[in-house]
Each structure stands twice: as structure tokens, then as C-alpha cells.
Specification:
Order of helices and strands: HHH
Distance between the termini: 8 Å
Amino acid sequence: MNVSQYFFCLFSPQVRWFVLTLTGERPLPAPDQMRLEAEAESRRLFEVEGVPERRLHQLGSPKQWKYCDELARLAGEEVSRTLKMPNQI
């Protein structure tokens, strides 16, 4: 797998979800709700999983797949695992 394939599996669902929010087909939650969810996730990663604060936004297996799955779900798409992480090849 080359680097462009590795990152495409992340960019593709991001772009699809973004376009749906721009067209209004998938409205965003209220700003306060998004802020509270982001704070809760950061707190969970930091306090429960022990992720250093400077690495809270870092993706990687299996976190990247969970993120891609959630974007696909939000975009109303089927979750696909045709591409694998480099350590799964």
C-alpha cells in the first residue's frame, strides 16, 4: 500500500461528510453539544486512557478506523474495510 492509499481512506469520508454538511443534508449538532462532546472525549482520552494532552488529536490504529467509521455513519455510507493499515498487510 502506498502512502496516498493510506491517507485516502481517511480523506474520502471526511470530504463526503463535509459536503453533506455544506449542502444541509447532514446538519451539524448545536455548537454547545459539539463542544461538550469534544471536551468529554478529550477528558476520556486523557484521564482514562492516559493519552498525553499533546497527542489527543493524533490518529492511528485502531483510533483512525473508529474515526473513519463514525464519519461514514454520519455521511450515511456503508463502512468499508477494503484498505488496511500498514501493520495489517
